[in-house]
Amino acid sequence: MFENVPSRELPKIADEVERSLRELASAGGLRAGRILVIGCSTSEVRGERIGTSGAEEIAALVYEGVERVRAEIGFQPVWQCCEHLNRALVVPRGLAEAKGWTIVSAVPVRKAGGSMAAYAYRRLADPCLVESLQADAGIDIGETLIGMHLRPVAVPVRPSVPWIGAARLTMAYTRPKLIGGERAVYALPERDGETPASGSCD
């Protein structure tokens, strides 16, 4: 079934996801309560073109890798659907209501939503889909284009293992925008009243 990914390599998928996610968490300060968007093409993981050969078995391994880190850190994963559901996201209903996200009506399946989103939807006690959100960080397995659901400004993280199975891995965390230009200060000065630039706004 996974002719382009040797069977002996399949158990490593969960390990690769875990390792990469720990690197992202460390680089981006991912902690309890933060939102992590995950896009994954299981077709790409197995070496096929995105949207052509989805596999629940691979989705289960990716989910396992994410859960290992989530159980320790406490961030909230949200799972991006494919383009046929407009890249809506699988989230717990309680979280969607608390955040005020716009809930949309659909149930992801392999052919409309993708194997990864379909698998995640069935693991949650009370799942729903939301139209969009702005996540604190993201992991993209197979170039599924998660950028539309990241807060500005995205900061790329280069993973030590740039592939999950046969799929290219892209990761990023976000940071607040730096505003103000050359006079702006982004950290408290060492002494009160100290300013790094001439001029005044008084």
Automatic annotation (TrEMBL):
SUPFAM superfamilies: TTHA0583/YokD-like. Signal peptide: none annotated. Coiled coil: none annotated. Belongs to the UPF0340 family. HAMAP family: UPF0340. This is UPF0340 protein H4Q31_05320. It comes from Cohnella lubricantis.
